[in-house]
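Lab notebook page, bench 4
Experiment: in silico fold of construct C2
Operator: M.H.
Input chain length: 343 residues
Purpose: comparison with the prior construct
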Amino acid sequence: MSLAACGGSGTNGNTNTAGNEAGNTAESQQGGAAAQAETEAAVPAVDWTGKTINFYVTHSAGGDTDYYARLVAQNLEKQLNCNVVVTNVTGSNGAVCMSQYKDVPNEDGLNFICTNAGSMACNEASGITDFGYEAFEPVAVYGKQANQNIIVRADAPYNSFQEFVDFTSAQEHAGELNLGISTGGVAYFLTMVMEDYGCDFNIIDIGDNAERITSLLGGGCDATIVTYSLVKDYIEAGQLKTLCAIPKSNNEGNTLDVPSAADVIPNLIDDSVYACLAPKGTDPAYVQALNEAIQAATDTDEWKQTCNDYSYQSRYVLNVEDTIELLKAQRELVMSYSDLLQN
């Protein structure tokens, strides 16, 4: 855009200093206005009213990653007066979805990925993918992963995590216990931490939380690591029992009254979070706008109650900058176990 301004001059051709000053001022003001107009034109007007936002969820329906993504979607529909369509794109512990949508065109700011950040980091560390959070535009962390518990059938011979560790560490029981996990997932990472401590499992790749629970109930595995809220009813019905909860490095806000795994294995912690990501190259204006919308949509008593009832956690929603810092820290932690995860 080009704007021209003329300074005034006298009829005798002599320089009119006041006129030039006025002209220069006008030119400066018009030039500044032009620059501002160009800047504003480059920033998309973020208004999702009446539009359809797509949330692509990395894990299957019925699990905690799916549950929170759908809950955020419902709240955003009210907040933004738009439609949010949730689609589960599953496979390889979320790697299929992440690979498929990390570079999808997103000029209109309508496509986003909802995932479990721990799975994303574990996929990279285990070699399932060759990318991590940096292959996306992080939007927001909108919750801590629900308390992961080590779950066994009610008739299992161990009633505490210490007994479980003693059993699986004993030479006569090496490789005897079938532990159901999802290769590359958070459960796999936690299993490697236990094996590094001295436990010896027969590791079975079963799939997501819902699939592992079904397998455990049917005798397909002897133990697994899943979200407590997903097995609460089975525990209360006397079909399953929990041996311990795997804590956060900062367990503040945790209300689940279950013994901590860290009391036996100090570095057995799970800092996984639920995160929303945008495809790489998405305009920062869309990223910031959706982050602010998620923060507003989750700042309700209903959301806080859900966090407590489902995850036994307090509300945990981060801005864009803090989201990036947390994802970076989590990646660094998980990558420190990459040799174990790839062997």
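Observations: Confidence is low (pLDDT under 50) at residues 1-43. Residues 180 and 204 are 5 Å apart (CA to CA).
Next step: discuss at group meeting.
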